[in-house]
UniProtKB/TrEMBL annotation:
GO terms for biological process: signal transduction. This is Histidine kinase. InterPro entries: HAMP_dom (IPR003660). Residues 227-279 form the HAMP domain. Keywords: Kinase, Membrane, Transferase, Transmembrane, Transmembrane helix. One of its GO terms (cellular component) is membrane.
Amino acid sequence: MPPKKTIGIPGLLLRTFLPLVVVVAILLAAIVYNALYAITLKGFDDRLIAASALTGALIDPADHDRLIRAATDSKSDAEKAEQERPYRRNVEPMQRIRDQLGLTYIYTQIAGGPEDVLYVLDGTEGDDHTLIGSPDSLPAETVAGLRRVQQSGSIHISPVEYQEQWGLLKTAAAPVYGADGRITGTAGADVNVSVIQIATQNALFQSAMIGLASILACLFVTLQIVRRVARPIERLTQDALRIAAGDHSPPAAIRSPREARALRDALDRLNAHVAGAQDEAIISADRHRLAASERLLLSETGDPEAVVVLADSPARRLIWIATSGPSLASALAVRAMAELRDRLVARPALLDHVEALADLDLGACLVFDSATRQLSLIANAPLTIETDSGAIRLSPGETAHIPAGVKRLRHAHVAIDLEREAPR
């Protein structure tokens, strides 16, 4: 008989509480959505009221009266009027208000004309810009609201409504005063329904997140029951397998009982020991490979302590010696100086530039005059030369006399022959 299937405690708790939590989460999400939607609309109302009122207050009355006359004059050039200073200095603040508040349209208008209104100032740019004096028909409720604004000076705020030319909009209108103190028009601010829909979708998303958070809260409470024991042991098992596979990052530090923490600390110490031993082995192997490579290169380049006679004549002898200790760099410098010697033999004129051509960082040049027995130094630093009669310390450019009979000098156990013939 096959064993009877059982359900664990977490599954049993989820089966009991999850349906109730789902119902509560849906109700809570609906309440939150309605509240956020109302707040969103209220926010747009406040923004539109502030924008229309600010626009009406910023407009210069005398300029607006002049623009109204241009708008109602059928013979006036609308495009030319919009380029003149009265129009530009009033419309530019409106454009900044529109950009800062994220509005769709901002404008001023007057009642009358061939249709319901005539536009005066328009802060919209691009294809949706309306020229001064352009007529437009509006919904009856909006027209009634504009009349109330011109009669009482109040601010009209409309619901979301459809306008034939502009689509679904939410509109606010505030009074615009003329130079004589009377209300001569209205300042309008519109926001497209797509902007409201985006804000509404955000509210819907927040509501859904709240509902989801309620469901996750139930799962969280259930999982806390097994979290204190089961999860730490499971995580330590995963860390042990990861470390065994070669990943030596430290085990994760999570809240757990005292015994599980002790096990984690032991695993961390073991991991650190293994990682340190592995790093040391890699460093040691790299060091051995580097030493072997240097030995190989040294064997190919020759003796780094060799003396290279760059030029030799009966009257003058030019000798380069390595001043640094035995190293790969010194050996490469010796080889470079040997190649320079061959070039100097082929092109004696280069001897005038030997100070620039010779390696004076890893070596120095000694110039010996056979007739006067004078020894001079070409180098970047002072050099000590040993003779049978004592040591001679030369600074760059300094000259010393070599006693007669001295045929060999030394520098750090490197022998320097003063009378050896240069190789050909």
